[in-house]
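Re: the 142-residue chain
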Amino acid sequence: MKNPYEYFDVTADIGFIAYGETLNESFENAGLAMFNVISDTNNIKAINKLTFSIESEDEVSLLYDFLEELLFLHEVKFMLFSKFNVEIYKKENGFKLNATIEGEEINWEIHERGSEIKAITFHMMEVSKNNGFYQTKAILDL
């Protein structure tokens, strides 16, 4: 498999495409791509663990809701995350995602300061499967 994610330029924003052999892995790599915009995830220790579940009507809405929840937890808990474990289930009326994320409290004396993410956008957001690999595509408002 190639890199787990890559970035593309968008005026005043940053976009990414995250890859995975499974839908779960592509969402996990989307979380990693997002937090690598905020800080270098290689320097974020997996000390604290949080779990959450979300339900959405389709895969694109699920990706949006997942990234929104990550941003919310980052801002409310004042934490950075570096490990993402995602399990996605198809339901009769949509999808359910269970996530366990790991990280630590922000300490800007230790953690490299990247870009602040203001919001997740629906613009150009995609979830697809190409050549046997899943892709999640999103744009982050900086």
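The chain has two helices and seven strands.
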